[in-house]
Amino acid sequence: MTDNLTTLIEEVADATKYSTPDSKDTLIRILNSQEANEIALALESLPIEQRTEAWKNVAQDQRLDILVEMRSDPRESLLDTMPIAELDSLFNNIAASDLIELADTLPARLLDRAVRAMDTLQRSYFEDAQQYSEDVAGRWIDHDVLVLPNNAKVRDALRLLRRQLPDYVDCIFITNRAGHFSEAIRISRVFGSPDHVPLVDLAEEDFSVINAQEDAVAAATKVQRSGFSALPVVGENGKLLGRLDIGNACELTQEYYENQLMASAGMNEDEDLFSPIVKSTKNRAIWLGINLLTAFLASWFIGLFEATLQQVVALAVLMPVVASMGGIAGSQTLTLIIRGLALNQINAANRNALLKKELSVGALNGIVWAFVIAIVASIWFDSAMIGVVIALAILANILAAAAAGVCIPVILDKLKLDPALSGAVVLTTVTDIVGFVAFLGLGTLLLL
Amino acid sequence: MTDNLTTLIEEVADATKYSTPDSKDTLIRILNSQEANEIALALESLPIEQRTEAWKNVAQDQRLDILVEMRSDPRESLLDTMPIAELDSLFNNIAASDLIELADTLPARLLDRAVRAMDTLQRSYFEDAQQYSEDVAGRWIDHDVLVLPNNAKVRDALRLLRRQLPDYVDCIFITNRAGHFSEAIRISRVFGSPDHVPLVDLAEEDFSVINAQEDAVAAATKVQRSGFSALPVVGENGKLLGRLDIGNACELTQEYYENQLMASAGMNEDEDLFSPIVKSTKNRAIWLGINLLTAFLASWFIGLFEATLQQVVALAVLMPVVASMGGIAGSQTLTLIIRGLALNQINAANRNALLKKELSVGALNGIVWAFVIAIVASIWFDSAMIGVVIALAILANILAAAAAGVCIPVILDKLKLDPALSGAVVLTTVTDIVGFVAFLGLGTLLLL
C-alpha cells in the first residue's frame, strides 16, 4: 500500500480538478480498478469538494464497502450528498457486520430504516452486538463458526468441511445440547484420522476461550498470540456466541494503536485530514484548555520569584533549559513504565526496585548534564555561581523527573485513568514546576 | 494476560525473596504451570538478583522458548549465568526461527557454535535469513508452506493435506518447474471439487505476493489485510522462498508500535525495566544531549531580549505560556499529518489544501485562546498592553505551529527520516523559538 495509493490519489485529484468528459472516464476507470480499502483512503485524502466529485463516479456496487472502510467524518460528508432513495437501496439487506461499523455515524432515522430492512438473522446478530459496548469483545463477534455436537465423528467433520470452510477457520467447535462451548478440534487432526473416531478424542488441551465482556483489545491480543486463526466467544453462562477471528483482531489492535497516538496529542480518534474546520477546532480546544491551565500554574510559580528575575536576567534566559531537561528525562522514564504497565509487569513486588533504578539512572545523567550545562552557563554569563545554581537545579529536576516518571503512571493506573493519555501532561507540569522553583529558588538563595 | 501475570510475578517475587526449601518448591510449581511467554514477562519484571534466582528453578525443557521470548538485556543477564556446557546443550539442534530471534544477543563465539550444531536444513534457513536485514520481509520467512507443481490435481492436494496442515495455512501454493511462485489455491475450494480437477482451475485471482526485500512491517500489514492466513514470499526472480504468516505478521506490527513509542521518547527499543544502569544512562544521554542543544538554541533567542526582560518582568513570567500553547497546537497537527503519511495519504495533490485547513483551525483556536489568555494576563499584571502583546504572540505562535505541523513531517519524510521519531523535537524547537521571539519582540516594541 505504498506508491500505488499515492499514484491513485494523485490521479483522482487531477481527474476531479478538471471536469472534462475524458477526465471523468479516467476517474471511473481508476476507481473501479482498486480495492474498497484503497479507494476509502484515497477519498479521505481529498478536500471535500473533490471528494464529493470523485464519489459521483464510484460504482454503486462498491459504495457500501467503501463507506464501511472510511472514518466517520469523511463518511458523513459523503452520506450527506446521497438522496434517501439511494441510501435505502444501499442499506437494503445490509449485513450485520457492516451495519455495526456504520451504526455510530448514521443519523437515528436512517439507522432505524436500515435495521428494519435487514433479514431476520442479520438483524438478530446486529441487535445482539449492540448490547455490548464497543470496547468489549461481544460487539465484534463473527458468526462464521463451524459447530458440531458432542457425539460427532470425523466423518461428520469431513462432510461439514466439504460444504463450507470460511476464512480464518482452523478449528471445529463442539457444543453440548444447551449450546455451551465444549471443545475445539483442529482441522489438521481431522484429516489424519479414520472416519469413525469421535471428535472429542481429538480435542485440544487448554484451549483458550474469550468472554463476551472481555476488553476487545485484550481479546484481540489473545487471539493473535494463541497460534490459532480464531478463538470462540462465549456468553456469561458459557454459551457459544460466535468467534473472534485473527483478521478482526488485527483491525482492533491497529485501531487501538492509532487511537492511542491521536489521544496522546489530545486529538479525537475520528478526526480526519479534512474534517470540518469548526468541528476540528472544538475537538482540539479542550486539550489546549487543559494545557493552558497547567501552563498558567507553572507561570504562577515563576511569578513568586519576580523580584529575583528582575535582578538576575540570566535566570529568565536559562529557565527553559532546566524545565526541558527535566521534561525529556521524565518522559523517558514515563514511556518505559507505561510499556511495563501495558504488559502488566509493574506491581507492588518490583515498584521500589524500579524507582531505585530510575533514580540511579537519573542521578548519573543528572550529574553529567549538570556539569556540561554549568560550564556553558558560567561561560555565557561570566559567572561561576550561575553555573553552580543551574547545575544543582538540573540535578534536582532530573531526579524529580525520574521519581515522577515512575509514580505518576502507577498512580494514574490505580485510578483507572490511562497513563498513556494523561501521563505526559501531568509529568511535564510537575517537571516544569520543580524546575522553575528549584532554579529560581536556588538563584534567590545564592545569587542575590 | 492480566491478573494471572500480576499474580505470577508477585508469587515469583515472594518466592525468590525467601530462599527456604518450601518457597523453592512453590517457585518451581508456579513456573512450570505457565506459558513461556508469561514466564518471560515475569522474569523481565524482576530485579536482576531475583531474576537469576528464579531462573535456576526454570525447567530445562522450557528454557530455550523463554529465552526466545525475552528482550535482549534481560536475556543477556540470564545467558551470562549459564555455563558453556549448558548453553551448548540448549543450542544443540536449534531451529532456525529460534536462532534468528536470538542471533543479535549471542556473543559471536556462541553463535558460531550454535550454527555449527544445527542440522543442515535449519542451517540453510538460518543463513538465508541472515542475508536480509532485519527490517525486510526476507528475514522473517516461515518455511511451513504446502507446495504442489503446476500439473497437480485436487486428489494430490487432498493427499498432501492428509499428511500435514501446519498452522495458519489456508492456501496451497503452485510453483513451476523452476520453483517460481505461480498460483494460490484456497483449501476450501479443494474440498468442494472432484478429484480429477486440475488445481490451476481453482486458482485465486489477483493474489498478493510479498517480495523478500519489501519492508517487513509493510509486508506484515499486507498479510493482515489480505483476508488470508499467510502470503508467499518470493525472491527477486520470482522464486518461492517461503511465506509470511499472520501470526508472525502480528508480532512484527506489535513490535513496530512498541518501538515507535519508545523511540519517540529517545529510548532504545531494547531498553528494559531492569536494564543495567550504566547502559541505560548512555542510551538515554544521546536524546538528552540533542534536546539540550535545542534548549540552548531557544535560550539564545531569549538572550537577545535581555534588556526587555530586565524592564518588564511579566514577560519572563508569561513566556512559558506562549511557548507551550504553540507546542501543543503544533503537536496536534503533527500527529494528524504523521498518521496521514503512514497511510500514504499525503502528497502534492492535497498538501496545500491541508495547509490551508490547518491554518484555519489554528486561526480559530488562536483567536479564542489569545482572547482568553489576554484577559487573564492583563488582570494579573494590571496592564491592558501586556494582554495585547501576549494575544498577538499566541496567535502568531499557533499559526506558525499549524504551518510547522504540516511542513516539518512532510520535509522529514522526503529526507527519508521517520517523522514519528524526530518530528516532535523539531516542531517544539520551532514553536519555542517563534513563541519567545514573537512575545519578547512584541514586548520590546509595545511595552518599553
Automatic annotation (TrEMBL), chains A, B:
The keyword Transmembrane applies. It is found in: Membrane. Keywords: Magnesium, Membrane, Transmembrane, Transmembrane helix, Transport. InterPro entries: CBS_dom, CBS_dom_sf, Mg_transptr_MgtE_intracell_dom, SLC41_membr_dom, SLC41_membr_dom_sf. Its main location: membrane. Belongs to the SLC41A transporter family. This is Magnesium transporter. It comes from Marinagarivorans cellulosilyticus.
